Amino acid sequence: MSLNPIRPWRNIERRQSRQIMVGSVPVGGDAPITVQTMTNTLTPDVAATLDQISRAAAAGADIVRVSAPDVESTAALRQITRESPVPIVADIHFHYKRAIEAAEAGAACLRINPGNIGDARRVAEVVKAAKDHGCSIRIGVNAGSLERHLLEKYGEPCPDAMVESGLDHIKLLQDADFHEYKISVKASDVFLAAAAYQQLAAATDAPIHLGITEAGGLVAGTVKSAIGLGSLLWFGIGDTIRVSLSADPVEEVKVGYEILKSLGLRTRGVQIISCPSCARQGFDVIKTVEALEQRLEHIKTPMSLSIIGCVVNGPGEALMTDIGFTGGGSGKGNGMVYMAGKQSHKMSNAEMIDHIVELVEKRAEEIDAAEAAAASQAAQ
Fold first, then answer.
1. Which terminus of the chain has a smaller tally of CB atoms within 10 A, N or C?
2. pTM confidence score
3. 270-274 and 303-308: which strand pairing?
């Protein structure tokens, strides 16, 4: 829950859901909203798949999904799940045996569409494997693959059809006495997805996995996902998210975190507040921000940094950030460095990037040390 007593207009009251475990990661309840991505390597290429998982985890991914379409893939999962730094969700379509194999191989969760797995006997076999191996299950409803009888009933993919599909699948699991599940109702249409998720949230207390499926490339997909996921998260819906982009999975993680950070739902790394730049700028804002984003990727400590080109808005933005740099003013070729909202010292534009990186790294160390000391004192 994001509650701000000083600025109540920033409050977000999350929907109350049950909590399940995806490996060691809690999803739902009062757990932090988790960020997911999915590998796009060939799963039997274990080295490439593990490399991509590790890069995603380093960027902040809490959970990673891996496709398991064939026997070779489920066989590879055994090594992947053993060496992965984060829990692995096995993506299963159609063949129930792949789900059983994935559970046996150590998957923390099975992403299935129970309606595509087969009859109740096969669903029961998958549930037994999940129970035996401590797997949770994600019910994945997609507007592009709704059951034929629902399309005939409703005429086209619509929120009612998607939610009915999801609730039918929930019943299949509940009838098999399985309750460690989460659910998604994804669509590439933002309006359809948002409406379906709102309806689903009112119909079940299961943890909800948010996503705008097949959102597009990096720019278009980011915009669609920010609108769709952001609006739902703002109103308290969603326990775990995946931003679906035709891009490197690491970019999905970055965008997902930025969406959560913008709503105050997760904090990780340096949040840079920067101006779009104009003729007033005292230094090249765009190139500076690009360089700082790359140089500060390794910082995981939550911190705010303002990079403003001139004194029109720079001092005001610096008041609200941990560290700030404002260009322009009387000193040509120099800018003002702000620490904790107050003017600290001047720095030449030519040296400011290295200097800001040093300041951020030092401040991160101070914050981490203070938190560790507080935790140690609390444990005594």
1. C
2. 0.91
3. parallel
How far is the CA of 353 from the CAs of 20, 287, 297, 334, 364, in angstroms?
44, 10, 14, 12, 16
> 205 and 181 in contact (C-beta within 8 Å)?
no
Give the confidence band of 162 by pLDDT, cuts at 50, 70, 90: very high
Q: How far apart are CA 62 and CA 86, in angstroms?
A: 6
Question: Distances in Å between the alpha carbon of 215 and those of 40, 162, 247?
Answer: 16, 18, 11
> Distance between CA 266 and CA 141 in Å, rounded?
26
Cα–Cα distance, 366 to 229 (Å, whole number): 34
- pLDDT grade for 330, boundaries at 50, 70 and 90: low
Q: Is the dihedral of CA 139, 142, 147, 153 positive or negative?
A: positive
CA atoms within 13 A on the CB side of 189: 12
Q: Which residue has the tokens 């390794």?
A: 298
Q: Are 26 and 33 in contact (CB under 8 A)?
A: no
DSSP one-letter code for 301 = S
Question: Could you tell me the strand order of the sheet in which 303-308 lies?
Answer: 270-274, 303-308, 323-326, 334-339, 342-348
- The pLDDT assigned to 248 comes to 96
**Structure tokens of 241?**
């998210």
